Each structure stands twice: as C-alpha cells, then as structure tokens.
From TrEMBL:
Its main location: membrane. This is Protoheme IX farnesyltransferase. InterPro entries: Protohaem_IX_farnesylTrfase, UbiA_prenyltransferase, UbiA_prenylTrfase_CS, UbiA_sf. The lineage of its organism: Bacteria, Pseudomonadati, Rhodothermota, Rhodothermia, Rhodothermales. Pathway: Porphyrin-containing compound metabolism; heme O biosynthesis; heme O from protoheme: step 1/1. It is found in: Cell membrane; Membrane.
Length: 314
C-alpha cells in the first residue's frame, strides 16, 4: 500500500481563510454567485433531489400531494447544497494539491472559507427546520443523518480506507428513502427498494470517477481503490458486481407493487446498457472506458426517474 503523506496546509489554507476581501467585494456579482453555486456541487445536488422525487413517487401510488412534494424537494435540495458546501470547506487544503480541484472557489481564494462555512451550515439547518414541521419529523431526521454521515464519517474516511466508497453510499442513498418517508411517514419496502437502487448505483459511478482521476487522488493522498490497487482488478470487478446488483434492485419497485410493467420494460434495457459499459471497462481499463461508465451512471438515475414518472401517470 503506498504511503500517504499529509498534504501541505500552509499556503492553501491561508488563501482560503484570508481571501482578498477587497477583491472579493469588487468582483462582479455573477462571478461570485457562480462560485457559490459551484460550492453546492449542483450536479450531485440535482441527482440527490431527483432521487428524493423518485422515493416520493413510490410512496404515492394513487395521488400526489403537490405541496408536500415541493417542500420535500426544497428541503432535500437545500440539505444537499449545504452538505456540498461544507464538504468543500473540509477538503479545501487537499483540493489545492489536485489539478482537478485546485481552482475551486475556496482553495483558489475566491470565496472566504468562513463565508462558505456559515452558508453551508445555514442551508443544512434550514432544511431540517423546514422538513420537520412542514413534512414530518422522520424525513427531517433522515436529512440530518445524511449530513452527519457524509461530513463526519464518509469525508474523513476518504483519507484512511478504500471502504470509504461503500460507506459513502449510505448517506448518498438516504435522501431517496427520505422522499418515500415524506410521502408515507413510514419506512416501507418500496422506500428501501429506492434506497438499494441508489446504494448500488453509486459504486460504479464513483469507482469510474476514481479510476479516471487516480493520479490526482494520489497527489491528494486519498485512499481510493484505484490508488491503493493500481492494477484495477478490484475496481473493474466491483464496477461489474454493483452494476449487476443495480439491475436487480431496479426491478424491486415493480416487485413490491408501486411501479408497473411499463417502468420495468424500460429500466431493464437501461440497466443492460449500463452493465455493458462496465464490462467494456473490465476488458479495457482506460480513461475512455471509465468515462463511458461515468456517463452511463449520470444518465441512469434521471432516466429511471423519468420511467417511474411516465409509469405513474399512465
């Protein structure tokens, strides 16, 4: 196992903590807004919110409570954005050592660290404050648990064990379960089905990303599987295994009743295509093949939710 030295925290931390206030204030507001949007990890926050919508649909087999749905999506989205911001704050020193992340707003000194910390914390607290009285307490508890597990379990483990990825799937999948709980107030089988789908989906998504940027992760001293095992055997096998599991998990909403055969007829070939990209990556472990797995994963969740939505309305 390669030795991981501690990343330098001198210049990057000073830049992040003491961003030039005059320059920050003088920047066009659109640039500042764009940097704050970047800190929310909008792509991930979008997928998290979409997964909560899927859970809500599965918990509403006959009718939708539009008001509760909107509040749920708002609360989940705010929590995801806040957690993304706080994750940027916690990792800014390490981001500064990696080519892919060195120009992020905090390590680059464009957004003061304290500002991002306050805003991120405010978004998470506001999400819980909205979900608890306006949706139900269990949904708020799941949102709080998501933030705690992501920030204080998964994030530190990224530098200590390759198991961080599988552990990180739990907070990554809780918002989908939260959507179901928001609709029903209970932890039913269909809710655990969408939770299982998100757990399985995250593994090929993040393993392919880790393979593409393994050299960067090595520079940042992250204990990612492709860094610790350069041959890529475990990365490729796990990518296939979890894509197969995803194919099976994606059939559970139909098996448990809320989703119909139209959904199943669409999701099985979708999963087959995803599996095909994983098999190709196993045969040829290149950045191009890994990127195809990543692209398939990015398409998969929105497409699955679209199928659930079409199936629900028809």
């Amino acid at each position: 196992m390669p030795e991981r030295s501690s990343a330098s925290s001198d210049v990057p931390s000073v830049r992040a903590a003491t961003a030039d206030q005059a320059g920050y204030s003088a920047r066009p507001w659109r640039q500042v807004l764009r940097d704050y949007l970047t800190l929310t990890k909008p792509e991930i926050s979008f997928l998290v919110t979409v997964s909560a919508f899927a859970g809500f649909l599965l918990g509403s087999p006959t009718s939708l409570d539009g008001g509760t749905l909107l509040i749920t999506l708002l609360g989940v989205g705010m929590c995801a954005c806040g957690v993304g911001m706080l994750n940027h704050c916690m990792e800014h020193r390490f981001d500064a050592t990696m080519k892919r992340t060195a120009d992020r707003p905090i390590p680059a000194g464009r957004i003061p660290l304290a500002h991002a910390q306050w805003m991120g914390t405010g978004l998470v607290l506001a999400s819980v404050g909205i979900l608890c009285p306006l949706v139900n307490p269990p949904t708020a508890v799941l949102a709080a648990l998501t933030a705690i597990l992501y920030l204080y379990v998964y994030t530190p483990l990224k530098r200590h064990t390759t198991y961080n990825t599988i552990i990180g799937t739990i907070p990554g999948a809780l918002p989908a379960l939260g959507g179901y709980v928001a609709a029903t107030g209970t932890f039913g089988a269909a809710g655990w089905a969408i939770f299982a789908i998100l757990v399985c989906w995250q593994m090929p998504h993040f393993l392919s990303l880790a393979w593409m940027y393994r050299n960067d992760y090595a520079r940042g001293n992250y204990a990612m599987l492709p860094v610790e095992e350069p041959s890529g055997d475990s990365t490729a096998y796990q990518t296939i295994a979890f894509t197969v599991l995803l194919l099976g998990a994606s059939a559970l909403p139909t098996a448990f009743g809320p989703a119909g055969w139209l959904y199943l007829a669409g999701v099985l070939p979708l999963g087959g295509w995803f599996l095909y990209t994983a098999l190709q990556f196993h045969r040829e472990r290149t950045g191009i093949r890994a990127r195809r797995v990543l692209k398939a994963s990015i398409v998969y969740i929105p497409a699955l939710v679209a199928l659930l939505t079409i199936d629900w309305f028809l």
